Structure formats: structure tokens, C-alpha cells
Amino acid sequence: MEKKFVDWDYYTSSTVEGRLLIVWRKSFVRVIVIEENAQHTQCYIKMDGQNNACCITFVYGYNTNEERKQLWSNLLKLKFLVKLWLIAGDFNALFDLEDREGDIAVTLSDIQDASLWLAQRHLELLLTGSNFTWANNQEGHKRIYSKIDHIFANEDWNDSFPNTKAHYSWETISDHNACVVSVKVSEKIRVKPFRYFNFWAYHPEFKNVVMKSWNKPLRCTGMKTLYFKLVRLKHCFKRFNNHVIGDVGKEYEAAKDMLIAAKMNSQADPRNLVLQQQEKEAVDKYCMIENMYHSFLSQRSKVTWLNKGDDNNVYFHACLKKRRVENRIVFYTNDQGESIDHFPKVVDHFVAHFKGYMGTQSMPSKSINYDSMALGTRINLDQQLSLLKPFSSKEVKEALFSIPDSKSPGPDGYGAGFFKQMWLELG
Q1: Domain 8-182 - what CATH class?
Q2: What's the confidence (pLDDT) of residue 120?
Q3: C-alpha dihedral, 61 to 67 to 70 to 73, nearest 10°
Q4: Could you identify which of 61, 138, 302, 354 might form a hypothetical disulfide with 91, taking C-beta atoms 3.0 to 4.6 angstroms apart as the criterion?
Q5: Among 135, 134, 130, 132, which residue's Cα sits nearest to residue 167?
């Protein structure tokens, strides 16, 4: 191998001959094998000229669920020399009920062990290319496709390299896909649009902020008044969030530490009324900030069915990062089949696409063809009058309150939660 690949080095697992082969270019990267097992090899990897090192675990899982139980157990016990970590390879395991096409349907028992391991806050990279990674290459109804090759990252990796993606493609006659992992330093994203957060309403100053801005007069009428009041309120909310609310995650941790300290002080001097009052105030503050933090995580992660608690907060964060990965658009394929991943070009492409689709100026609407209208079914006079009736406040309220608070906001950044919270004052 050294004769054919000059300046390259390799490692093959000595535990089970031929199961894993790792190849790297010596002049660019340093690889140290830390641990090996029949189903995985753990490596420390350092790129020349780069400050950050990482751990990568290469996997080749056994074929049966029973044999793979040892794989999941070993992966849970792994210790890392550095924070950044990837795990990649042929797991021979399914993680989702949709991971196989053909043959018998995937059952919950097929994915149980893999899903339990995945629940330990591991996130699959953003995937592009083929949906399946393996095929049995048989003909007709015997053809089976499945997704058994995977690449996962820990939270530190996703925090440091959020634009990482894995591209699967059928490169050769092999029954497995080839996979290329691309790592890019995050591009600086332009100014983020305003978004209303439901947890703001838990703060005692919330309504004062809204009404102080809302009650200022405007020289316009009708819907223009509503529009400009909402625009003006955005700036007030931004100042409120930056100068009063702050980092709700840090505030939550600080409130929890303060509560623990107050309880310990009160316990040390059980008859001290001052300490008891301080404990009560710490409890009240903690409960308020806990509700705010839970609301924030729930809204951002779109998970609304979990109760409050530190364990669930960890799950919220994992779901939030998963949504960020899934919703991120890091490249597009142009008309010439080229993959473009330069962020400013991706942005310009989307702007140009929607300009071409929607136009850049309003076009005169066509006049109604009354002859064509007469050919269709027409409503009677009573139905016409019913449609012309104005909506009642009750109907508007019922429609508004039927919208979940977690529903994504409109273009102005305000979700249903704001209008529901302020209904009595503004409705």
C-alpha cells in the first residue's frame, strides 16, 4: 500500500482482520489510535496548522441485534481526550421506522437499542444525497434499500461546526454509498429578523412595556395604525430583551443557585425570619424564571409535551440543535449541476429565485369575466348578505385562541401568543 499511495498512511484493525481500514495523508493530518474493538476503532485526529483536535470513532457493526448490544455498550463507555467528536461508519443498524424499503416492515424492536443509544444527546449530521445507504442489488420485488450507514456528532461539534454536512452518493458498483463529510467554518449571518418570544409575558414589566408604546398617538387610521404600532413595539421589545430580560438560560442557572443557597442558609438558622423571607423571595424568582426558560425552550424546539425540569431542559436543547441542523440550508445545486456552498451566494440565489417567481413590482390585475362567472354556481341573496356581515369579537377571539402559542410567527415576527396575552388590553 505504501508503494501505491505515497505520503499516505493507514491502519487496519488487529482485533478482527479486515473489518476496518483507516487511511490518511501524513503531511496533513496526525492520527493516533486510542482504542479498538471488534466493532469500532477510536482515533485522536489533529490537522496540521489547526488548533482544534477531534476524536472520531469508526464503526462497523455486527449483523444481528444481539451482537450489536456490545457495540452500544462500548460506545456509551467511550472517554474523549478532546471535546469535538464524530462517530461514523456502517452500523448495520436502523434508527427509524422509515430506514428500510422493501422486505418486511421495520418494527420498534428493530430500532429499540439504537434509539436508546441515540437518545444520549447524539445528533445526526445534516444529510444530502441518497436517502438510503445500502442496497442488496437484487431484481424485482427482492430489491431492498436501507439506511444503515450513519454519521453522528456531539453537541460540541455542532456548536463549533454548525455547517457540517454529510453527502451520500452511489459512486461505484459497491452495495454501499460513499459518504463525504464537509466541514466549513460558520459564515457570518446577516441581521436576524425580529421574533416575539412568549416567555417575555411572564415578566412583571411586560404589560407596562407594551402599553407605554401602544398608547402613544399616531397620525394614521385603520390597519395602518395597527401596523405602525407593531413596528414601533418591536424596537421596545428588543431593548426590553437586551436590557431587562438578558440571557434567560444564565438567569435560570443563577436563580437556581440563589434558591439553593437561600435554602441552605435557612436550614442553618431555622428560626431566622429574615432568612425565611429571603428563601420565599428566591422561590418566587426561581419559579418565574423557570417558567420563562421552559417557555423559551419549548417555543424554540417546537416540543410542547414535556414538563419542566433540568433533565427535560437538556432534551429541549438537543431538539433545538436538531431543528437548527434540519432547517439549515448550506448549499444549492445550480442549473449546471454544480454544488454551491458559499453562504453569500446561497442567500443571493434564494433572493433571485423568489424575485423571478414573484416579480419585483405589482402587475395590474385582470378584470372579471362576468360571462364566465354566470356559467358557474351562484350564491343566493341571503348567502351574499351573510358573507358581508362583519366578524364579531367573539368569532375573532375564538379563531385567535385556537392557534397554538408554539405556531411559527408571521412575517412581522409576532405569533399568536402575543395577541392572546394582550387580548383584554388590545382586543
Answers
A1: alpha beta
A2: 72
A3: 80
A4: 61
A5: 130
Cell of 166: 454529510
- Look at residue 348 and give its three-state secondary structure: helix
Burial 236-249 (b: 16+ CB within 10 A, else e): ebeebbeeebeebe
Single-letter amino acid, residue 406: S
What whole-number distance in Å separates Cα of residue 105 and Cα of residue 216? 62
**Residue range 230-239, pLDDT digits in tens:** 999 999 999 9
Q: Is 367 helix (H, G, I), strand (E, B) or coil?
A: coil
Cα 218 from Cα 214, distance rounded (Å)? 10
For the chain, how long is the longest CA-to-CA vector? 90
Q: How far is CA 397 from CA 207, 215, 264, 425, in A?
A: 19, 22, 47, 13
- Residue 157 predicted with pLDDT over 50: yes
Nearest to 52 by CA among 162, 157, 158, 165: 157
| Residue 398 phi, psi (nearest 5) | -60, -40
Say how far apart CA 244 and CA 249 lie, in whole Å: 14
Query: At 294, is the secondary structure helix, strand, or coil?
Result: helix
Contact 329, 341 (CB under 8 A): no
Per-domain residue ranges of the chain: 8-182, 206-241+392-427
Mean pLDDT of the residues in the chain: 84
Distance CA 417, CA 196 (A): 9
